[in-house]
Amino acid sequence: MSFDRLIKNIREKQNPTVAGLDPKLDYIPGYIKEAAYEKYGKTLEGAAQALFEFNKGLIDALCDIVPAVKPQAAYYEMYGWYGVRTLEKTISYAKEKGMFVITDGKRNDIGTTMQAYAKAHLGTTEIEGETVSAFGADALTVNGYLGTDGVKPLLEICKNDDKGIFVLVKTSNPSSGELQDRILDDGNTVYRTMGNMCESWGESVMGESGYSGVGAVVGATYPEQLGELRKALPHTFFLVPGYGAQGGGAKDVAPAFDENGAGAVINSSRGIMCAWQKEGCEPTEYAAAARREAIRMRDEITGFIGEIK
Amino acid sequence: MSFDRLIKNIREKQNPTVAGLDPKLDYIPGYIKEAAYEKYGKTLEGAAQALFEFNKGLIDALCDIVPAVKPQAAYYEMYGWYGVRTLEKTISYAKEKGMFVITDGKRNDIGTTMQAYAKAHLGTTEIEGETVSAFGADALTVNGYLGTDGVKPLLEICKNDDKGIFVLVKTSNPSSGELQDRILDDGNTVYRTMGNMCESWGESVMGESGYSGVGAVVGATYPEQLGELRKALPHTFFLVPGYGAQGGGAKDVAPAFDENGAGAVINSSRGIMCAWQKEGCEPTEYAAAARREAIRMRDEITGFIGEIK
User: Which of B75, B112, B147 is nearest residue A176 as measured by Cβ atoms?
Assistant: First the structure.
């Protein structure tokens, strides 16, 4: 269901991209870090505070032109629970600003444990009759190696709470083929098999857009597979990493879209976060530089796919 | 490397088991919850505090007879950053008490992102020259769907910091076969292929015990595959979930061990955490009941495999 909201955001902004919030200390302007360290020391707390300030600036600069953000959990967990608190605060802040939030956690487990992840990241947690939201993102990335048991608990929350998931199908990294490209005895690749599972999991959470609440992660670095999967999985919305720093260009991601210019959202993390370093502009201009890069990326991609209908 | 420490713990205690710390509020005695709610309210903070008190009691009761604990990240993330702080505190407390700590997070990603997870959960984080430990577990469960790029960043930390990983190979859930049992064009199953990858990843982090720092998760619910994999993967240490509540018995897990009674550690979560409810004893006796169940489980398993040499 959820991706209807994302698709609406994309259409309104005519921008099929998502800004990855994978903040490393190296990407953060010195003045932000120094202020945080002064208050909290060179500690996990200080670093987490710097991350949050950096994210806030990016969100403020992007929220009227970019439909979604994708914080990557690993970069927050690195700073312990202080970092995880920054993840929580970042999600809240982006939602307040009207952005669709995809937590990139690649979570996976089974049964009640997967249900716990689903409640944690997308749904709500009950405490003696009180209902509280823990992280409250709009969508979560998921690893489907464990099969249906690991996805079913999410589908209920997708349905009831209007949320979505993106299952890893064909990832953007060089070694993704070691398992994912292997051919099964029915002639299908592993990634295609996973893609087919997404189509079938999605049947129970179909949106008005024609795309279900079960999306797929397919890397920009494999344009041929992107095109193959777009045709084979007509109800599966794609989250496409690998644009920019990992080597994928606008031409490479074009096959991810359907004939209406819909069906996919393209992620850029370092390209946007580090635009100020690439430009060589003043550190205080980091958010403006991120906005310039987001506009450049938008225009480059929509130049290939045209109007998003 | 890491599993040498775990194996030493197992041998000293003659107990090849790990206590899963997957605390749900339903498992926690009322008096613990009430004390926490009184102080912090029926909030994420209150729930997280109850979880920690419950875990502490279990660790105190188990640490001289059980070699390891396995907190499952999902049950902490459910309570937001307060829950994650309880995970952090639980790991520290168990380590203080001499237990080997396996964080069950099934993390997976690529390149620098996987490195961030590796630093977060096993290694250390650098903040402007200061080195801090975020979660600091001894081992982490990992999903290998993304191939070598997703495992390599962990191997360095396994080597340098004497840590270990357990890669999902054949999981304990009913639908694990949907992908994992599929046959590839070379005649191998997907799970066997993943197992072979573990053997090869482990070559660079071989321990004195003959087992590498790259272990495998293989479910007790599939005893035949357990036996097959034990023979096929002589250097891969097994973490075996699915004993007890999921249906696996001591006879089912016996094939996980080598001829010395080594090579595997069997997890029980609900069996130990909920022993007081099953026994129907006083809630204040919950930790003593957990200990009784841990002893029963130990004796049942060692009854099958004999002395651990």
Answer: B147
Residue B72 CA to residue A110 CA, distance in Å, equals 12
Amino acid letter for position A125: T
Amino acid at A29: P
CA angle B194, B200, B206 (to 5 degrees): 125
A1-15 pLDDT, tens digit per residue, is 679 999 999 999 999
CB contact under 8 A, A77 and B121: yes
pLDDT digits 0-9 by tens, A22-63: 999 999 999 999 999 999 999 999 999 999 999 999 999 999
Query: Residue B179 and residue A194: Cβ atoms within 8 Å?
Result: yes
Q: What is the ipTM of this complex?
A: 0.97
Q: Which of B146, B190, B218, B221 to mutate to test the interface with A (most CBs of A within 10 A)?
A: B146
Q: B149-167 b/e with 16+ CB inside 10 Å = b?
A: bbbbbbbebbeebbbbbbb
Tell me the chain B residues in contact with residue A75 when contact means C-beta distances shorter than 8 Å.
113, 116
Contacts A–B by Cβ distance under 8 A: 226
Q: Which residues of A266-297 are buried (b: 16+ CB within 10 A; e: fewer)?
A: bbbbbbbbbbbeeeeeeeeebbbbbbbbbeeb
What percentage of residues in chain B have a pLDDT greater than 90? 95
List, for residues B54-83, the tens digit of each pLDDT value: 999 999 999 999 999 999 999 999 999 999
Grade residue B235 by pLDDT with cuts at 50, 70 and 90: very high
Q: The whole model's pTM is what? A: 0.97
Cα–Cα distance, B62 to B69 (Å, whole number)? 9
Chain A: nearest CA to B176, how far in angstroms? Answer: 5
Which of B155, B166, B179 would you mutate first to test chain A, the one with the most A CBs within 10 A? Answer: B179
